[in-house]
Specification:
This protein is α+β, with helices and mostly antiparallel strands. The protein has 2 domains: 72 residues, Gyrase A, domain 2; 134 residues, Cyclophilin. Helices cover 23% and strands 30% of the residues. The strands form 3 sheets. The protein has a 7-stranded mixed β-barrel. A 4-stranded antiparallel β-sheet has the order 1-2-4-3, covered by helices on one side. The chain has a two-stranded antiparallel sheet with strand order 8-11. Strand 1 and strand 2 form a beta hairpin. It is elongated.
C-alpha cells in the first residue's frame, strides 16, 4: 500500500497492482476507517479497482497532516469479508432483439446463445468502480468462456439499459451514449436517476447478479425497445 500526491488537495492510495474481491473489500474498509477518523478533513473519497482517491479540504488541513492521518487510518484495517456489500439482482431481457452481439459471443465460444445467457447469470459480480458516466458500474469478473474484446468500431448510439461485456468486465449502460462493448441484453432498472436519493442503485463494493426476464416483463418494468 502506498500513498501518493494526486493534486493540490488530493492523495491517491494504491492498495495493489491488480484488482480482486479481497482488494475491493480492503478499499471499502479503508473508506469506513477514513470517514470515521478524519471526517472534518475529507471532501470526497473515490474508490476504484485497486486504489482510492482522497480529496481533502485545504482550508482545514494540509498535505503533511492529511498524509499522517491517512497512514494512521490505514493501519490495522479491520478485516472485511470479500462477500461484504449489498447483493443486488438486476433483471435482464436477453435476446437477439435486445442483445445484438449475443450470436458473435456464442460463436466465438463455440456454445449456444442460451449457454451464454446462462453463464452470464451464474456469476456474482463485484462493483469495482463507477465511472465513464454517472451510474456506469464496472463489474467483474465475467466467466472467461464468454469474455469478449471491445468492438473494433464503437457504436455511435448504445441504448439506456444495455447490458454489455468487454474483456472480463460487464456493465449496464445508464444512458444513451456511444460505446464499444458487446451488447447481450437490456435491463429496465435505472442505473442513474438524479431525482432519486440515492441516485444510483449500486455502489462500489456491492455484489451484482443478473436474472433473465421475458420481453413482456421487461416492458412492464419500464424498459424501452
Amino acid at each position: 500500500m502506498r500513498i501518493e500526491i494526486a493534486g493540490q488537495n488530493a492523495f491517491i492510495v494504491y492498495f495493489a497492482e491488480q484488482t480482486s474481491a479481497a482488494v475491493s473489500a480492503q478499499i471499502q474498509a479503508a473508506v469506513t476507517s477514513i470517514l470515521a477518523t478524519m471526517p472534518d478533513s475529507i471532501i470526497d473519497l473515490v474508490p476504484s479497482y485497486a486504489s482510492l482517491l482522497v480529496i481533502f479540504d485545504l482550508d482545514r488541513s494540509d498535505h503533511f497532516a492529511v498524509k499522517q492521518q491517512l497512514r494512521a487510518a490505514l493501519t490495522n484495517l479491520e478485516a472485511v469479508d470479500a462477500s461484504a456489500g449489498s447483493l443486488i439482482t438486476l433483471p435482464v431481457y436477453y435476446s437477439k432483439e435486445s442483445g445484438p452481439d449475443l450470436e458473435a459471443i456464442a460463436a466465438n465460444a463455440n456454445i449456444d446463445i442460451d449457454d451464454v445467457i446462462e453463464i452470464h447469470q451464474q456469476q456474482e459480480y463485484r462493483v469495482y468502480a463507477i465511472g465513464f458516466a454517472p451510474g456506469f458500474a464496472y463489474l467483474g469478473e465475467v466467466d472467461e468462456r464468454i469474455a469478449a474484446p471491445r468492438l473494433a468500431t464503437p457504436r455511435q448510439k448504445v441504448p439506456r439499459g444495455a447490458v454489455a461485456i468487454a474483456d472480463r468486465q460487464t456493465a449496464v449502460y445508464p444512458a444513451i451514449s456511444p460505446g464499444g462493448w458487446n451488447l447481450i441484453g437490456l435491463c429496465p432498472t435505472r442505473m442513474f436517476d438524479p431525482d432519486k436519493t440515492p441516485s444510483m442503485p449500486v455502489q462500489v463494493g456491492d455484489r451484482i447478479r443478473f436474472s433473465a426476464i421475458s420481453r413482456d416483463q421487461f416492458i412492464d418494468q419500464g424498459g424501452e425497445l
